[in-house]
From TrEMBL:
<dbReference type="Pfam" id="PF07589">
    <property type="entry name" value="PEP-CTERM"/>
</dbReference>
<keyword id="KW-0732">Signal</keyword>
<dbReference type="InterPro" id="IPR013424">
    <property type="entry name" value="Ice-binding_C"/>
</dbReference>
<feature type="domain" description="Ice-binding protein C-terminal">
    <location>
        <begin position="188"/>
        <end position="212"/>
    </location>
</feature>
<feature type="signal peptide">
    <location>
        <begin position="1"/>
        <end position="20"/>
    </location>
</feature>
<protein>
    <submittedName>
        <fullName>PEP-CTERM sorting domain-containing protein</fullName>
    </submittedName>
</protein>
Length: 216
């Protein structure tokens, strides 16, 4: 009986080492000081009016920018924009594209078990891509759009992109992105020692069961 209890404890230890945890590095936009660069995201932007190479987007200033009717900044997330000149107008003559990229690493985790949900707002619209596969799209800066994924993850580094389109208007217009993650989870890959413990427990259960049959 004691051996069976020990085997069960070993098996439980192996299984419990693979519990679900939050995914690291899924950051809301605007985590940092107002007016500073949001180093969690990189930005690549291009249009016929403005070309911005790979760079760091800027966190908007509370009570200064964004202007209404953009969703107001709060303690959970803030808008990020292409330049420190946050009232700058872009794309007066043709639509511009602004790609904000967030990377996260699933090394040591089971990529097949990963998943997240979130929401975004964009001026003017955005397509959301996980490892270059579209998972959501939407438009508007006065209300949230949802996004989610429970597949399409890969071992190691993953990339999440928000490809923002800014519509052309006479005189140009501002552009920006806001993102909040609501839930995320992934299962850790058990250490080799955990597999060994599980195997030992199963073998011991089998041996005890065989002996009990022989006694009978």
């Amino acid at each position: 009986m004691k051996r069976i209890i020990l085997a069960g404890a070993l098996a439980f230890a192996a299984v419990s080492s693979a519990h679900a945890v939050r995914i690291n590095d899924l950051y809301n936009t605007g985590i940092g000081a107002n007016g500073a660069g949001d180093t969690h995201y990189s930005l690549n932007a291009a249009s016929s009016d403005t070309v911005i190479g790979n760079t760091v987007p800027v966190i908007t200033l509370d009570n200064v920018w964004p202007i209404s009717p953009w969703l107001a900044n709060d303690g959970t997330s803030k808008w990020i924009t292409p330049t420190a000149s946050q009232g700058q107008s872009f794309d007066a003559f043709s639509a511009g594209t602004y790609t904000y990229t967030l990377s996260f690493d699933l090394t040591g985790y089971n990529a097949g078990s990963a998943g997240f949900t979130g929401r975004f707002a964009a001026d003017n619209d955005a397509v959301v891509k996980l490892n270059n596969q579209v998972i959501a799209s939407g438009s508007g800066f006065t209300a949230w759009n949802g996004f989610a994924a429970n597949s399409g993850f890969q071992a190691g580094v993953n990339t999440l992109q928000f490809v923002v389109g800014n519509w052309a208007q006479n005189g140009g217009n501002p552009t920006g992105l806001r993102v909040e993650f609501l839930t995320s989870s992934v299962t850790a890959v058990p250490e080799p020692s955990s597999y060994a413990m599980l195997l030992a427990g199963l073998v011991l259960v089998g041996v005890v069961g065989s002996r009990r049959k022989q006694v009978r």
